[in-house]
């Protein structure tokens, strides 16, 4: 069963191994898919790639996520609506297992096993335990070639 947690955009705070972090990424269409004991929170981050200004923080942080998805340590969403709806669903499942799916459109889809934490100031944080599944995008390799060749040609 798939539920909508929030459709409108919300800022995400990403942290990576070795102390890197970013605050420029925006997520939208937050969903929750319940399959037995497995709860998967889906976040669409593709709007960050549709920005005209390719030097904007949202675009650069999203590109950093593509290149460093294997180093992701945590994702924090300060939206209380997402938090409240997720906690309500979490409490209805006995011994739930949590996953986080980040949809990067043509650049891939990454699914992580995570531990959720309710934040004192509001929102929720997902601590990444491991990368469970990686689905490569179709247009990503050709776009990289264009970006690197197009600037020098």
What does this structure look like?
- It is a single chain.
- The chain is α+β, with helices and mostly antiparallel strands.
- It has a seven-stranded mixed beta barrel.
- The radius of gyration is 16 Å and the shape is globular.
- It has helices at about 55-65, 80-90, 140-150; strands at about 1-5, 10-15, 20, 25-35, 40-45, 70-75, 95-105, 110-120, 125-135.
- The termini are far apart.
- The longest helix is centred in the last third of the chain and has 13 residues, at about 140-150.
- The chain contains three helices and nine strands, in the order βββββαβαβββα.
Brief characterization of the structure:
With 153 residues, the chain is an alpha+beta fold. The chain is 24% helix and 43% strand.
């Amino acid at each position: 069963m798939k539920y909508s947690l929030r459709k409108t955009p919300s800022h995400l705070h990403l942290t990576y191994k070795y102390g890197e972090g970013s605050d420029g990424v925006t997520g939208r269409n937050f969903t929750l898919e319940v399959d037995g004991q497995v709860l998967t929170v889906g976040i669409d981050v593709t709007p960050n790639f549709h920005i005209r200004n390719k030097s904007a923080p949202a675009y650069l942080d999203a590109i950093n996520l593509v290149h460093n998805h294997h180093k992701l340590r945590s994702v924090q969403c300060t939206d209380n609506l997402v938090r409240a709806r997720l906690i309500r669903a979490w409490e209805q499942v006995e011994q739930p297992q949590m996953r986080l799916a980040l949809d990067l459109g043509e650049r891939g889809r990454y699914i992580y096993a995570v531990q959720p934490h309710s934040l004192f100031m509001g929102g929720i944080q997902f601590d990444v335990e491991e990368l469970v599944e990686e689905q490569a995008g179709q247009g990503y390799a050709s776009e990289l070639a264009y970006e690197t060749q197009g600037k020098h040609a």
